[in-house]
Amino acid sequence: MPPLNYSKWDQLELSDDSDIEGHPNVDKKSLIRWKQRDIHEKREIRKHRITQLRCEIACNEVLLPRLRTITDDVQSGGHIHFSSLVERLKTQPSTEAPADGQPTYDQMLQSLLLQIWEEAKEKGVGKDDPELDKALVDGLKSHLKKLGGYQEKIKVELETEEKEQTKKITSDDLHEGFDSKYVPPKPSPPPVTAPKKSKGTMKTTETMFETLNPRSVSASPTAESSVPDADDEGDEGDEDSLPSLTPALVEFSKLPVRDYERSWRFIQGNREVIVPGATDALLVEAFAAERRGEKQYAKQCVHQGLLLQYCDKLGPDGVSLFFKRMVSDEKRAQTVFLKDVEDTYAHLVARVIATQAEEEEAAQGREQIQLMQEDSSQPITFNVPDGPPPEDLRLEGPGTEGLDIKQVRRALQMRWDVFEAFDDALKKALQIGTLEAVNKVLGKMEVADAEEVVKMLEMAGILSFADGGNVRDMTNPDGEGGTDPSEEVETADADAE
Q1: Which carries the bigger pLDDT value, residue 444 or residue 178?
Q2: For the chain, percent helix, then strand, then coil, each to nearest 5?
Q3: Which one, 4, 293, 342, 489, has the greatest CB density within 10 A?
C-alpha cells in the first residue's frame, strides 16, 4: 500500500497564539489582528499586481507587432514615411484602446515616434541630414528591443506572483465541487369535471298546451311533470354533469386543424391538457359551437378532442408516438385519423340537426302569444309600409278635409320606424301578410316580448282588425284573458297618395 500523500496540507496557513511573539506592553489580541490584516493586505496587493501585469502583457502583445511593422516600413521608406505615419496617427487616430479611460494604441505609438524623433535631434541629426533615416531606424529597433525585454520580464514576474498566490489556500479558492438537490415533480393536473351545483328540492312545473283552435283548448289536458335539479337523477342531471373546458383546453381548442407541430409544443408546455375528461369536454364544446353556427371552431374542437383520445389510446408514450406518426412521411396514419375526424364531425352535425328538430317539437307545448280570429268574416290584416312617407305627401278623397298633413306625416314616419325596428324574421312574416306566418314568429318569442311586439303593431297601425278582433293568450286553461281587445286602427294613409 503506497504511503498517504499529505502535501496538500502544506497549502493551509494555520497559526496559534504561540506563533506570535510581541512586545510585553502590547496585548496579544492586537498583535493577532495586525498579523491578519498584514496577510490580507499583502494578498490584495498581489491580486492588484497580477491584474496590472496581465493588462500590460495584453497591451504589449498588441503594440509589439505594430512596432515591428513600423520599423520595417521606415527602414524601406525612410524619414518621409516616418513623418507621414506620425501625421496619420495624429489626424486619423483609431479608437481602439486597452480599456475604457486609457490612451488608444495609436496615441501610444505616436508618443513613441515623437520620442524617437526627439532623441535623434538630441544626437545632432537634423531634418536634412542623410543619417536621419539610420537614426530613426536605430531608435525604433532600440525601443523594440526594450519593449520585448520588458515583456519577458513581466511575464516572469506574473508567473512568480501567480505561483505565490497559489501557495496557500484562501477563501477565494473555495468553490462548489458538486451539489445534489431534490426537486419534487409537479403534481398531476386534476381531471376535467363538470362544475358542482348545490342540491335542491324537486320542482313541479305546469305546462299549458295551446292550439290555434280555441275550442280544443278546453279539451286539451294539462301536463304535469316533475323536473329534478342538476344533481338529482334524470336527463337534465346528465346534461349538467357534462365537463366544461378549462382555460388551457380553450386555448388548445383554437389551434388550427392539422397543425401538429403547434399542438405538440402546446402539450409539452401544458400538462393539464392530457387529463381524463379532456376529450369529452372538447366534444361537448364542439356540439355547442355547432349549435351556435360556428362550424370551423366546432371542427377544430372535434380534431383536438380526437387527437387527445388517440394519444391516450396509444399507451404511456402515446403522445410522442402519435405526433411522430403524424409528422412522418407515411401518410396512412394521417389518412386514418382525418377520416375519423370527418366521420365524428358529420355525426355531430346530424345530432345537432336532430336535437334542434326535437326542441322545435317540444316548443309547441310552451307558453305562446297568438293572434286569433273570432270569425272568418272578420279577418286580421297587416298594413305593412313600403317605406317612409314621400316628400310630396298629399291628402285626397272624402274625409281628409280636417286632417293635418304634418300629423299624418308624423304617423306614417312612426309606422315606418316601428316596422324597421323589428327583426328580419318578423318583417318577412309581416310582408307575407298571413296570420300563420306572423303567429309562427310570435310563437318562438317569449310571452313578454311577443306582447310588446303586438302592442307596437297596434300602436303603429300595422295590425288591423276588421271588426274588433281580439289578441288572446291561449296559454290560459279557459282560453280567455291575454292582452286587451285591440282597438280599431285608423290608418291615416288610407286615402293618402
Answers
A1: 444
A2: 55, 5, 40
A3: 489
